[in-house]
Amino acid sequence: xxxxxxxxxxxxxxxxxxxxxxxxxxxxxxxxxxxxxxxxxxxxxxxxxxxxxxxxxxxxxxxxxxxxxxxxxxxxxxxxxxxxxxxxxxxxxxxxxxxxxxxxxxxxxxxxxxxxxxxxxxxxxxxxxxxxxxxxxxxxxxxxxxxxxxxxxxxxxxxxxxxxxxxxxxxxxxxxxxxxxxxxxxxxxxxxxxxxxxxxxxxxxxxxxxxxxxxxxxxxxxxxxxxxxxxxxxxxxxxxxxxxxxxxx
Amino acid sequence: xxxxxxxxxxxxxxxxxxxxxxxxxxxxxxxxxxxxxxxxxxxxxxxxxxxxxxxxxxxxxxxxxxxxxxxxxxxxxxxxxxxxxxxxxxxxxxxxxxxxxxxxxxxxxxxxxxxxxxxxxxxxxxxxxxxxxxxxxxxxxxxxxxxxxxxxxxxxxxxxxxxxxxxxxxxxxxxxxxxxxxxxxxxxxxxxxxxxxxxxxxxxxxxxxxxxxxxxxxxxxxxxxxxxxxxxxxxxxxxxxxxxxxxxxxxxxxxxxxxxxxxxxxxxxxxxxxxxxxxxxxxxxxxxxxxxxxxxxxxxxxxxxxxxxxxxxxxxxxxxxxxxxxxxxxxxxxxxxxxxxxxxxxxxxxxxxxxxxxxxxxxxxxxxxxxxxxxxxxxxxxxxxxxxxxxxxxxxxxxxxxxxxxxxxxxxxxxxxxxxxxxxxxxxxxxxxxxxxxxxxxxxxxxxxxxxxxxxxxxxxxxxxxxxxxxxxxxxxxxxxx
Lengths: 249, 482
Ligand SMILES: Nc1ncnc2c1ncn2[C@@H]1O[C@H](COP(=O)(O)OP(=O)(O)O)[C@@H](O)[C@H]1O
Ligand SMILES: [Mg+2]
What we know:
The structure holds 2 protein chains of 2 kinds.
Chain A: E1 2-11, E2 14-24, E3 29-33, H1 40-48, E4 54-62, E5 65-66, H2 72-77, E6 80-83, E7 90-94, H3 95-109, H4 117-130, E8 141-142, H5 148-162, E9 166-170, H6 178-191, E10 197-202, E11 215-220, E12 223-228, H7 230-239, H8 242-248
Parallel strand pairs in A: 3-10, 3-11, 6-9, 9-10
Antiparallel strand pairs in A: 1-2, 1-4, 4-5, 7-8, 11-12
Chain B: H1 6-20, H2 25-31, H3 37-46, H4 51-65, H5 105-114, H6 118-124, H7 133-148, E1 152-155, H8 156-162, H9 164-170, H10 181-189, E2 192-198, E3 208-209, E4 223-229, E5 234-240, E6 251-252, E7 255-260, E8 265-272, E9 286-295, E10 300-307, E11 312-315, E12 318-321, E13 327-336, E14 341-350, E15 356-365, E16 370-379, E17 387-396, E18 402-411, E19 417-426, H11 429-437, H12 442-458, H13 463-476
Helix pairs in contact in B: 3-4, 4-10, 8-9, 11-12, 12-13
The complex binds adenosine-5'-diphosphate and magnesium ion.
């Protein structure tokens, strides 16, 4: 599904990713862990197509196709979804209106008609129930005055609505209390299938108790320095990142 | 030349008559440019107006002659040459077209995107409509319903003939001829406009729209509107049209007067979409409008406006809250793009006790445009417990445009409560990327963000109008980023 080869990227001449490779196949869950500033969000943003970053070397393929030249919305239409670490506010645009626009714009790109209002309503009802989202919440302005937890839950709600092929969750667990964490993880698990893939970016092993990864990677200084199975997350939790650093020298 | 019919003969005789009179159409073309007392008289005569009306125009003209064009607004433009304008040509007929194929494709495209029906498209583009049955029957039913309630809604030139006592009683009482340069000019030379009277206690059952007013021969350069809501009545009035108006007239100076008597309510909604000029700032309409309403006891006037057109806009719909407990509201969205300039806002003059006013202004600037809010809140000495709340929000796109806020507050009564809030924000890269990531392209994302920003005002518009206005915002900002 996703294949990244030797990716080098920089911003304002500061090199952040320094030869990162990663392959994610359909049906898999990958966790990416690593200390602050390692380049995790940068990686997520680059996959999603944020153009502030300059890719100086390497390439990203989605289903065998180089997506380097695609605009972010085109990547989204191809099934890439990013749950943002810091979702932005859009005043005056309700959660409902936003997701409706997102769905219909994606459909338009595929040459489909707008989703009938009835179907949209049904889907909203289903997904908001799955994520235990209150109806009133859906009429609020997008992310405006949302608590940290509400923002993250809203990201996952959008993910559930858009049914992406590749979902990247950037620190979706931060700011969530244990109940919200369970609900969000449950939502992600429901979405999982053999046809789609999930990349979970996290600091802590906590979320991985609920969303069990097939692979765990450690991102450090712009590269993946270690990969393993779920047990690697536990090891990191126990030993901290210093252990990795020491191993590297 | 074929047969010379009875009709043609008659026609010719008429023109012959005019030829030696003062005001043949041909002659009028020769006199066309420039403004003097004879021209004012000619206009009045052409409209067959009573003497009082002619005198009224002449008074206005004499005042105007001594006035200077105002310069305090934050707009810069080449002054119209007032002696270079034809003042008494009949309202310009747009060329009649035979089919939509003859219409400017760009205009048609805009119509389509606004969701305007084919019949309406034809009407707007001045294409002869063959299936008129529909619109005629709508207009007839419309007239009948209004007639039954005693509501008068007609071109003001007709009202001067048919209801001279009403027009004379109110015309110029809210916006005196001496009010300002453009109002004086309008009073002297106004071509036509609308008159509306709602009798005591009547609730007008439908939105009155100039769009439905039959007999309308184009809006004209100097439009005059007078709306009188008698005691306890209600009316919602829609002015303008979301479809773009490609008027060749450079200068537009309209006057609108509203009278809301005791317990009456007037909602006045405008969508202004005059030609803004091209991307380089060439051409485009200057729109200098004077709009004012008077509220008696317990009366209410709401101005709602969506301004997207014109090269230069100068416009301050105002409320004089004379009666106790009267309420004035101003809800405005002003969009400027490319080289457009808008200086717009409101005046709320609190004279009565317990008067209340609300001002919500949303300015959106893109391109190299300049967007100014100018608002006056005045609380008179006898206006016990007057309240005002003002909120002025500006949204900027890019670094080349400007947003300016000029709030003026004058309070002469200590019990007054006046609140002013202002914000300026920018459509950020982060917001756009967030939308893009969800599959929404940048153009659509801007529309979404702008609509969200304008929501409080859009909500005040009548439903159908709001939907069109929303699309209009989208279209006016196209190509503003990237
Ligand atoms: N927009 C930016 N401008 C400048 N530096 C940036 C920008 N975004 C990220 N960085 C830098 O890149 C590095 C990696 O950041 P980030 O990808 O956010 O790390 P992580 O998500 O792993 O904590 C950090 O040193 C950060 O300061
Ligand atoms: Mg991060």
